[in-house]
Amino acid sequence: MKKVVLAYSGGLDTSCIIPWLKDRGYDIIAVIGDVGQGDDFQKVKAKAIKSGASKVYCLNLQQELIENYAFPALKAGALYEGKYNLACALSRPLIAYHQVMIARKEKADGMVHGCTGKGNDQVRFEVTYRLMEPKMEVLAPVRVWEFKSRDEEIDYAKSKGVPVDASKKKPYSIDTNVYGRAMESGVLEDPMVEPPADIFYMTVAPEKAPNKPEYVEIEFTKGIPTGVNGKKMKPLELVLELNKIAGRNGVGRVDMIENRLVGIKSRELYENPAGTVLHLAIREIESLVLDRDSLRFKEALSQKYAELIYNGLWWTPLKAQMDSFFDKYHENTTGLARIKLYKGHAMVVGRKSPHSRYSEKMATYGKGDTFDQSLAEGFIKLWTVPFQKHS
Ligand code: ARG
Question: Of 174, 206, 228, which residue constitutes the final position of a domain?
Fold first, then answer.
């Protein structure tokens, strides 16, 4: 019997995969990655065994997700197509990495995931497998099996003794972790349909948020968020706290049409309260401590970094090289940003840093100006030279 390790969520697809592969002669070990999806993991583990897995692992990966994946992406300013904080995309190389580590320990022959052939996640899983264990077999049953609909899968699951919650129609496809939540399909497939109120979990509707603004101060040390409202916090704790604060003010909803790696355009809804204010805050401190050239140069890198993550290229040389760049870039990103949250909006209203390059004496139009305005005339003459006709 061939032994394979499955990235297991407890959903219908990954649950059907277990008997489906068993019938084809495989021994299945299920791996559950707890990235903060809030499931009852005792139940999920029991379901894997009931479905026919010979062993289950459940790993708490929440802290690692924030520290080693979300924060580097934050330092890189990575927002896919300018909007998506990549919460789901960041969790895949992490889960796949641990899946391979377990496969090695168990001396397995292959790796299995439950992604479809239309999405990005299949790429993120398989690139990780192939870079870490190029010789291992890779199975993606959902891409090749005979089921044409969810109902057919439910019938199959029942016939195999897999517990199903068939009463519940699944109106959306949802992916959740501590750094954000993604919702797609169902009524959302029509790009003109406003998302129904009941799809949101991490944020209140802006119109239902408090009628009074709330202020939050976020502290950074060398580009890493380290405190909220004067209290030092560990990365995971800090993200959970900001999810609460921003979420109760309706901050962090994104509605977008995005371009998948396979070329399809899809409509996604995201909630990422903590990520929204963190991206705003870090950029604000950067604007104070970095020179113009560095800031401009980074913009192009942010876009590239976001594309690498989105396209499954987390474990590649360029991504690692860029992390080194961002470590250097953020040497002085220490300080705090003050943000005002009000009914779905997050506005920066203050920033400070011991490394600030801002000089009130240079900027002022009032008394004590230290900028020598007489230098401007010569500067502008030279600035114009390349564009003038010279004989
Ligand atoms: N489109 C996002 C990405 O590729 C989210 C994927 C998962 N979304 C979902 N609703 N199940 O990263």
Answer: 174
CATH number (domain holding residue 204): 3.90.1260.10
Q: What is the CA(355)–ligand 1 centre distance, in A?
A: 38
Per-residue pLDDT of the chain (391 residues; tens, 9 = 90+): 899 999 999 999 999 999 999 999 999 999 999 999 999 999 999 999 999 999 999 999 999 999 999 999 999 999 999 999 999 999 999 999 999 999 999 999 999 999 999 999 999 999 999 999 999 999 999 999 999 999 999 999 999 999 987 666 778 999 999 999 999 999 999 999 999 999 999 999 999 999 999 999 999 999 999 999 999 999 999 999 999 999 999 999 999 999 999 999 999 999 999 999 999 999 999 999 999 999 999 999 999 999 999 999 999 999 999 999 999 999 999 999 999 999 999 999 999 999 999 999 999 999 999 999 999 999 999 999 999 999 9
Same domain, 159 and 201: no
User: What atom of ligand 1 comes closest to residue 172's alpha carbon?
Assistant: 10
Q: What does pTM read for this prediction?
A: 0.97
Q: Rounded to the nearest whole angstrom, what is the distance from the C-alpha of residue 182 to the centroid of ligand 1?
A: 6
Q: From CA 48, how far away is CA 51, in angstroms rounded?
A: 5
Whether 175 lines ligand 1, by a CB cut-off of 6 Å, is yes
Query: Which token pair is 42?
Result: 């005792």
Task: Find out whether the beta carbon of 34 lies less than 6 Å from any atom of ligand 1.
Answer: no
Contact 71, 225 (CB under 8 A): yes
Query: From ligand 1's centre to the CA of 91, what distance in Å?
Result: 11
Cβ-in-10-Å burial (0-12, 13-18, 19+) of 229 comes to: middle
Asked if the structure places residue 364 within a domain, the reply is no
The finding on whether 183 has its CB within 6 A of some atom of ligand 1 is: yes
| Mutate which of 85, 175, 257, 264 for ligand 1 pocket (most atoms within 8 A of beta carbon) | 175
Ligand 1 atom closest to residue 89's alpha carbon, by position in its atom list: 12
Residue owning the nearest CA to atom 12 of ligand 1: 89
Q: Which of 94, 120, 283, 276 is nearest to 202 (CA)?
A: 276
Q: Which residues are catalytic?
A: 13, 92, 121, 173
Do 156 and 244 lie in one domain? The reply is: no
Structural domain boundaries, residue 47: 2-174
Last residue of a domain, one of 150, 174, 198: 174
Q: Are residues 220 and 165 in the same domain?
A: no
CA distances from 148 to 47, 152, 162, 169, 258 (A): 23, 7, 18, 16, 26
Sheet holding 231-232, edge to edge: 231-232, 224-228, 214-221, 335-342, 345-352
